[in-house]
């Protein structure tokens, strides 16, 4: 591969499914996306997830790439949108927790018991979801989320490529988010029903 390939040349090759071009684009822009996300959300794990999601989207939609458009603007726009989406999700979760805590305080101390029940339920639910994952994905997810290992450390430990680890974590995170979205909806409905 040429050392000083232009963005257009790399995008043209990526559009044809060239993995080396994808890797070169990741090398150029991965750090930028990660740093932007980390500085905005102050969370390394979320920054890794969002960086993976952006580049998986790039790979999935490579056939639609217009190499004449400003790629830097595309990267920034997608990264910003993913950060905004995550920020909104965090604010909604925080607002829901605040409402539950205020309600518990208003009822005079039930909050502690409620929190213990909620924490126990959430821990059991997470464990159940992790068990539903395919074995390799489950192992990678546990190493990352519960043992705190980075993508590089997991790749070294399991003797797999970093791209494989990133892909498995991406799919595990999508799975967990979709299931938690459902349970949050269910809990919010229960909460509203109990207080109406």
TrEMBL record:
What the entry lists under InterPro entries is as follows:
RNA_pol_sigma-70-like, RNA_pol_sigma-70_dom, RNA_pol_sigma70_r2, RNA_pol_sigma70_r4_t2, RNA_pol_sigma_r2, RNA_pol_sigma_r3/r4-like, WH-like_DNA-bd_sf
| Keyword list, A-Z | Sigma factor, Transcription, Transcription regulation
The entry lists its GO molecular-function terms as: DNA binding; sigma factor activity
Q: Where is the RNA polymerase sigma-70 region domain?
A: 25-89
Mention one GO biological process in which this protein takes part, according to its record: DNA-templated transcription initiation
Domain (RNA polymerase sigma factor 70 region 4 type): give its ranges: 124-172
Tell me where on the tree of life, at the top rank, the source sits. Bacteria
What family is it from?
A: Belongs to the sigma-70 factor family. ECF subfamily.
Q: What's the protein called, per UniProt?
A: RNA polymerase sigma-70 factor, ECF subfamily
Task: Provide the species name.
Answer: Alistipes timonensis JC136
């Amino acid at each position: 591969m040429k050392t000083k390939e232009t963005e257009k040349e790399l995008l043209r090759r990526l559009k044809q499914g060239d993995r080396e071009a994808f890797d070169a684009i990741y090398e150029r822009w991965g750090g930028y996306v990660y740093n932007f996300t980390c500085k905005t959300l102050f969370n390394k794990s979320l920054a890794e997830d969002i960086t993976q999601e952006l580049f998986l989207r790039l790979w999935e939609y490579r056939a639609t790439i217009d190499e004449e458009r400003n790629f830097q603007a595309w990267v920034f726009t997608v990264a910003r949108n993913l950060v905004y989406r995550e920020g909104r999700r965090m604010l909604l979760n925080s607002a829901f927790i605040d409402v539950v805590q205020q309600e518990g305080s208003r009822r005079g101390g039930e909050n502690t018991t409620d929190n213990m029940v909620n924490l126990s339920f959430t821990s059991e639910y997470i464990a159940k979801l992790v068990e539903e994952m395919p074995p390799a994905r489950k192992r990678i997810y546990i190493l990352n989320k519960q043992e705190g290992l980075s993508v590089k450390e997991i790749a070294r430990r399991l003797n797999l490529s970093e791209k494989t680890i990133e892909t498995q974590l991406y799919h595990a995170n999508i799975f967990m988010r979709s299931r938690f979205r459902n349970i949050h909806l269910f809990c919010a409905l229960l909460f509203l029903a109990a207080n109406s």
